[in-house]
Design a protein that fits this description.
six-stranded mixed beta sheet; 19 helices; inorganic pyrophosphatase (n-terminal core); five-stranded parallel beta sheet; alpha/beta; Diaminopimelate Epimerase, Chain A, domain 1; 3 domains
Length: 501
């Protein structure tokens, strides 16, 4: 990993030099375009903070996707302002479009791509064409796949932006926790006990050495929700007869001899529990699951005890104290059309922006809960031979369709068949298209499922000229309403082929 990091760092030094040279020629603010999820918002925040410290004027725009129409608008806008552009957490999957629109007709717009998605027209990480793209797009295009680093597991968009910021100024090491929040938002803490792997583990080293992040062993439940609610609605731990029922969970915890209320009458959270009480909960859960499900205690412990990452300078009990809760708050901002709030919080605003974000977090959680309940109660999952899919109808908007697909894939219940990828389809009314978000469980990605490639191939087979891609376990695109059936049919055929090969 050190050799790969050395090459990445060396290239980033060149990128920074290229950036500074073009900055001298530009008289306008640097324009940053970033994605609306937690990884995109932290990417934008890292770049914003780094440029602010260099006294470089900048603007950040949050986009739901970097689609072809959006690229045309950006190309038109840059003609008026002559900005230097940075694309973070997207751009690799659209680099040919960007080159075409920003550098055609004697235009020569300087821009940088800092992304972790599989580059456009690349089938997978072993594709030889990656070397060619790397050679042809230096120094303005940085992507982990150029260095044989897996962008779906080992580093996120925020991580790439962090290494760029650090190449710009070593003091930006204090932005390492923000990069880890982005990686957590992209569910890249999937190593043993929720650990980070690859370059993310190196970013964690930077953050712990700087005394900004602490890793603790803890129970795998939200530390800030009432404990009965945190356990009842856990997606990782399934307690038959108790999961999904907060009042039964409360009674179960009381039978363990644990005081459940604070002095103010509120139900206690995991943060309120001492070591002895946590041990009681652990033993009680292991006993219960062993009896009900005949599962080995060691297997239960693997799910139950995890690494928790604490942000040492944040208020204990707040959404900002725990990496996972912080990333969830930012995700809720972006997916509730409040991306600027999320960026402000990630850049350090702990007053107005944080207060507003907490208020809309309640609505966001409610919308996710209602969406999942609706899918379950109305049997909305439809099956083909090799894929499953659902339509958001009037209940699930395009901004949360991917989140819902992820929650379904990672949930411990049997609402969906984990051996098939799931495709969420949300209608974008003003355009007459479906926004598609697909997710695949790690177990079938290991067997050869690659959603990024499947979506691109299905678009071709369906004669659709849309941009699409992402990662093997998570990818997306948009499809005209009248082509959705043929597109899903083609996805089914391609997944079948991938599994057979």
């Amino acid at each position: 990993m050190n050799t790969k990091l050395k090459l990445l760092t060396s290239d980033l030094t060149e990128t920074v030099r290229w950036f500074q040279d073009h900055l001298k020629e530009s008289e306008a603010a640097v324009q940053i375009y970033t994605h609306l999820d937690a990884d995109g918002l932290t990417s934008g925040a890292i770049l914003g903070k780094a440029l602010y410290r260099e006294r470089v004027p900048f603007q950040i725009s949050v986009l739901r996707q970097l689609e072809r129409e959006e690229i045309v608008k950006i190309a038109e806008k840059v003609q008026d302002y002559n900005n230097l552009l940075i694309f973070s957490d997207f751009g690799s999957g659209q680099y040919l479009e960007l080159d075409d629109k920003l550098n055609s007709d004697n235009k020569n717009t300087p821009y940088i791509i800092l992304d972790h998605h599989v580059p456009q027209n690349i089938s997978d990480k072993n594709d030889d064409k990656i070397k060619e793209i790397y050679k042809n797009s230096k120094p303005w295009h940085i992507n982990p796949y150029f260095y044989e680093i897996d962008g779906s597991k080992e580093i996120s968009g925020a991580g790439i932006c962090y290494f760029f910021a650090k190449a710009l100024n070593e003091n930006n090491v204090d932005l390492s926790p923000i990069a880890l929040i982005g990686a957590t938002g992209d569910i890249q803490n999937r190593g043993p006990s929720n650990s980070f792997t690859g370059l993310n583990s190196i970013i964690l080293e930077h953050a712990t050495k700087a005394d900004l992040v602490e890793m603790v062993n803890d129970l795998n439940f939200s530390p800030i929700k009432p404990i009965n609610e945190a356990i009842a609605y856990s997606t990782d731990i399934n307690l038959p007869g108790l999961s999904g029922n907060t009042s039964k969970m409360l009674k179960f915890l009381q039978t363990l001899g644990i005081l459940m209320e604070n002095s103010d009458g509120n139900i206690r959270t995991l943060n309120d529990f001492n070591k002895e009480e946590k041990q009681k909960v652990t033993s009680g859960i292991i006993r219960y699951i062993s009896l009900k499900l005949d599962v080995e205690p060691s297997e239960i412990i693997n799910n139950l005890i995890i690494n928790r990452y604490i942000l040492k300078n944040e208020l204990v009990g707040s959404e900002l104290h725990d990496l996972k809760e912080f990333s969830y708050l930012l995700n809720s901002c972006g997916r509730s059309h409040n991306g600027s709030l999320g960026i402000a919080i990630a850049m350090g605003d702990r007053r107005i922006a944080y207060k507003k974000a907490r208020e809309q977090l309640i609505e966001y959680k409610k919308s996710l809960g209602q969406a999942l309940a609706w899918i379950h109660d109305e049997n909305k999952i439809q099956l083909k031979e090799y894929i499953q899919f659902f339509f958001g109808e009037d209940v699930i908007s395009e901004t949360i369709i991917g989140t819902i697909a992820s929650m379904l894939i990672f949930s411990k219940n049997d609402l969906i068949d984990k051996s098939k990828p799931i495709f969420g389809c949300a209608k974008r009314k003003e355009e007459g298209v479906y926004k598609i978000s697909s997710r695949a469980h790690e177990s079938i990605v290991k067997k050869g499922v690659n959603l990024s490639e499947a979506i691109r191939e299905a678009l071709k087979l369906s004669n659709l000229d849309a941009l699409g891609g992402g990662h093997p376990p998570a990818a997306g695109t948009k499809v005209p309403v009248d082509k959705i059936d043929v597109f899903l049919e083609n996805c089914d055929k391609i997944i079948k082929k991938q599994l057979q090969e």
